[in-house]
Amino acid sequence: MVSATETAVVAALAQLIGLVPVAWLAWRATGGRAVEPAAWWIALGFAVSWIADEAAHHARPELVGVIYQPIQAAIIGGVFLDRREARWYATALAGLGIVGAALWGGAGVDTFTESIADLSIVGIVSGVRPLWRHDPLRMALLVAFGGSWLAWLAVASYPALPRWPSYLAYQGARLVGALLFCRAALRPAARPALAWRAA
Hints:
mainly alpha; 9 helices; globular
């Protein structure tokens, strides 16, 4: 049996995962390493989950949960699209957020919005728009969003499963993806993938 204190500690640590990429890039930038602007945008996308966790302390967590994923997906996925595509993508995700907010509290709404948001990122980086050949950055995002989505299905869709293993798998995928991003973002091989594309 997991105590309330242990649950609170794990939740606090899980919340910090969203700040790992921003903190890493900031630390490297203060050391004189050049950081691509798009890497900052992806790191900001990761940080949206931390912002959402903070907001959930002051608003209804279920409502925050169905709104933050489309915002996160718009920021991260938009990095790999040209401006016209990014506008359409952001508009579609804004619609998803509005639908999620309108339906929040209904059965499966958070799983629906999480699925659309995460799978849209997976689709963009996994071959719908293959922007690079050597792909440590792509692997980081596939783990962070594809892997965590699979684990989230276990958390949200199958309440009969033990909660802690599936919850820890979800947070573990998020953490591994964030760490892989930190490793990939500053590698020279990742820079072509992170270069902004002009419309």
